[in-house]
Amino acid sequence: MKSHIQSACQKVIDRVKKKERKLLDRMENISHKHIGQLKADIKSGEMSVKMYQQQTELIDQALQSKCDMDVYEMYQGCEAVGDADLKERGRIASVTFRQDTDKLSKALDDLQLGEIEVLYVSVLDLKDTPVLQDTIDIIVADERSKLNPIDVTVLVVNDIDTVVVTDWDNTSVKSFYVKNKQTQHSKLSMDGPPLSLTKLTHNRLAVTVPSRNKIVIVEVNPDLVLRSTITTSKQYVGITSLPPSTPAVGSHSPPCVDILDMTGNVLRSISPLHKGNRILQYPNFSTSVPR
After folding, report:
1. pLDDT tens per residue across span 262-283
2. Which of 25, 108, 209, 237 is placed for a possible disulfide with 214 were both Cys, Cβ 3.0 to 4.6 Å?
3. DSSP character at residue 38
4. How far apart (Å, rounded) are the C-alpha atoms in residues 224 and 215?
5. pLDDT bracket for residue 81 (50, 70, 90)
6. Are 182 and 204 in contact (CB under 8 A)?
């Protein structure tokens, strides 16, 4: 959840940074244009100064000659320059950055990164009568065998509640979920009857297939995808996950619970006795509890 919040915030930051780059690029382009105009104006001014200096020298020479004709010609030349149609092109007078702080503040106040919802459940009262909330039909079309669900779990994948079951007789694992207000399902066929399953991560399951000496790793998207297979030395039935994602599995022969690594090696085997008798006989199902 923390990662989702940070990701949503980063997306907003990225969009703001993109707008910042756009404004800076525009300012840079305008600045180059403005500087170009200023340089052209300086060069034009320097040329004008030289021209007026030359005219001043010519006027002085004409006045010193004491010739009325030279003075008259000089006057006409100056008048022609003064009457010339010098149309000044449009130019940048100033560059400013305007910002509506009130509008920006309102936009930030209205910014919706998301909401955190807290679901409260009432404390279980063993005296209460259970009430049926919903029923899921786990029969899939074109199945020839009768339905024989063995184990079930629930995952939340991409904000979608997903129910996953093992179907022994149809040698498959199935997922059921509601998307776009439509009930949908996915079916992953196994090469042997699956028995027990457990959550390894938020969207990955481990499924025991005892007859094939296998543990199958399945990804839930919420459709099911086969990710890998672990070959084991025993026919494991029950399975649970110990942190961090370490399988603990039950065996009938011999009756025990083994802790495995993700390659199938036994890290530890547990087979407790009580007065000489094995406590574990048929560990078909297991679960882990925090200490």
Report:
1. 999 999 999 988 888 888 888 8
2. 209
3. H
4. 15
5. low
6. no
73, containing H or E segment:
helix 68-83
What's the pTM value of the predicted model, to 2 decimals?
Answer: 0.55
**Do the Cβ atoms of 172 and 191 come closer than 8 Å?**
no
Report, as an integer, the average pLDDT of 195-220. Answer: 94
What is the CA angle 253-254-255, rounded to 5? 100
Which residues fall within 8 angstroms of residue 272, CB to CB, at 6 or more apart? Answer: 278, 279, 280
Cβ atoms of 149 and 166 closer than 8 Å: yes
Task: Write down the domain spans for the chain.
Answer: 2-84+98-110, 149-278
DSSP at 168: T
**What SS3 state is found at 24?**
helix
Whether residue 203 contacts residue 157, with contact meaning beta carbons closer than 8 Å, is answered with yes
